[in-house]
Amino acid sequence: MDTTFISNVKTLTQLTEADCQLLKEMKPAIEKHAAALVEAFYAHLEQFEHLAKLLHAEAGRIERLKGHLRQWLIGLSDGEYGESYFARRYRIGFRHVEVGLEPFYVIAAMAFCRAKAAEMIIEAEYADDPHKTERTVALNRIMDIDLNVMLQSYDDHRVQQFLNVTGFSRALFETLMAG
Predict the structure, then answer these.
(1) How far is 7 from 72, CA to CA, in rounded Å?
(2) pTM here?
(3) Cα separation of 126 and 106, whole Å?
(4) Is there a contact between 150 and 106 (Cβ–Cβ < 8 Å)?
(5) Which CATH fold topology does 3-178 show?
């Protein structure tokens, strides 16, 4: 993953060292509530027939997906957000591309996770914490970073598809896009 992209995303989302420390401190709370958040997420998706069919298209899929979502959620509190973190998040996005999940689902899923995390983690564990607002901001920032990285994987995949179909070089494509 391009270190310039990583640096830019962190700068634009204003992720600070204080945020990283707060996220790391929140790991036990995130671990405590992860299973409930995952269950709420998949219960939400099950309400949509086309998503329910996708989730149950093969035996064991939903349980594997629940495990992945739990790992993702707990990973938000790693506290270290360097190249390996970004590479893992990029692979998550690319996996969504591979299964044909449109980006709007990823955006909606992140909105759901953000709201539920605020309710189930921040409110439950930090309601009276003097750093409650800062914790919420830190969690939102890391989720924004994750969303940026996952959506970048969509963009990269679509550009590559275009280049494969047209035979254009990346340099020509970038020149055309630059205007």
Answers:
(1) 21
(2) 0.89
(3) 27
(4) yes
(5) Globin-like (1.10.490)
What is the per-residue pLDDT across 138-159, written as a single tens digit (0 to 9) for each? 999 999 999 999 999 988 888 7
- As given in the structure block, the two tokens for residue 45 are 């998706």
Cβ 93 vs Cβ 151: under 8 Å: yes
Mean pLDDT of the chain: 93
Domain boundaries, the chain: 3-178
Separation of alpha carbons 34 and 41, rounded Å: 10
Answer whether residue 122 shows pLDDT above 90.
yes
Amino acid letter, residue 140: N
CA distances from residue 7 to 13, 48, 145 in whole angstroms, order as listed: 10, 37, 11
DSSP annotation string for the chain: --HHHHHHHHHHHT--HHHHHHHHHTHHHHHHHHHHHHHHHHHHHTTSHHHHHHHTSSTTHHHHHHHHHHHHHHHTT-S--SHHHHHHHHHHHHHHHHTT--HHHHHHHHHHHHHHHIIIIIIHHHTT-TTHHHHHHHHHHHHHHHHHHHHHHHHHHHHHHHHHHH---HHHHHHHHH-
**pLDDT above 90: residue 166:** no
How many whole angstroms separate alpha carbon 122 and alpha carbon 29? Answer: 9
| Cα(57)–Cα(149) distance, integer angstroms | 27
> What six digits make up the tokens of 113?
């996770």
Give the Cα separation of 113 and 126 in Å (integer): 17
